[in-house]
Amino acid sequence: MTTFLENMKAMDANRYATKKTIAQGMLDIALLTANASQLKYILQVGEQHQFYKLMLILISLSIVMQVAAGLLLVIQSLINMHNTKDRNRGFAINHFIDAFIFLSVFCDIMKMNFGLDPAVPHTDVELLKP
């Protein structure tokens, strides 16, 4: 029976980095799918939405940052973490990926604060008046 210490010694840095890259990629795909849905909604509603231009800008920024993070994830997956020079490049790319994802999530949070939540059904206020 192996001990915890033996398992830690057997851990491969490339395998860990690959799993982390895949997890970040899945988060990026989920956010990109949500943004595509929100973009479709805001384009259908058009200028009638109170914050149309702001929503369009925030959604577009979020999509651009997600695509940039996705491209960097692909580049990062090609890096051999056993080589010291490549490992330093990988760490630098990882910091950029984290920054892009953080800014993308920040844009998504701002969107939700301005009333663009597809989970909440939007009804016409005039219909609710007696």
From TrEMBL:
Keywords per UniProt: Cell adhesion, Membrane, Transmembrane, Transmembrane helix
Protein name, as recorded: Ninjurin-2 isoform X6
Annotated GO biological process: cell adhesion; tissue regeneration
Transmembrane portions of the chain: 52-75, 96-114
Membrane topology: Multi-pass membrane protein
Domain of life: Eukaryota
Gene Ontology CC: one annotated term: membrane
Family the entry assigns: Belongs to the ninjurin family.
Subcellular compartments: Membrane
